[in-house]
């Protein structure tokens, strides 16, 4: 896994892909935003500001307040077990990927947003 490439990837370039993936499976942009805000602690205006600033994932997650239950996100995404990823930024990106994947697979929001 190329950590530096992931660190420098623009969140604003990946965000529309998250939305497209969810919408193809009958989910909504609002649900994607809810997941991102839950994970990062951003409110809707802060999320929009990150998109407009074209923050890369390193900056995006440096400014986030990761949810206290984020460590409950487990499983395999992109061939890697998320709980075993040692790079903190890459792990947070994969947390987000995993949550969006669960949304697209039809999992209920109350289970995606780990209580």
Attribute tags:
60% helix, 7 helices, two-stranded antiparallel ribbon, Helicase, Ruva Protein, domain 3, globular, 115 residues
Description:
The chain is mainly alpha-helical and 115 residues long. It has seven helices and two strands. α2 crosses α4, α2 packs parallel to α6 and α3 runs antiparallel to α6. The chain is globular, with a radius of gyration of 13 Å. The N and C termini lie far apart (30 Å).
SSE blueprint:
Layout: H1 3-8, H2 11-24, H3 29-40, H4 44-53, H5 57-62, E1 76-77, E2 80-81, H6 88-104, H7 109-112
Antiparallel strand pairs: 1-2
Helix pairs in contact: 2-4, 2-6, 3-6
Radius of gyration: 13 Å
Poorly predicted runs: none
Number of helices: 7
Count of structural domains: 1
β-strand percent reads under 5%
Put the structure in a nutshell.
The protein is mostly helical.
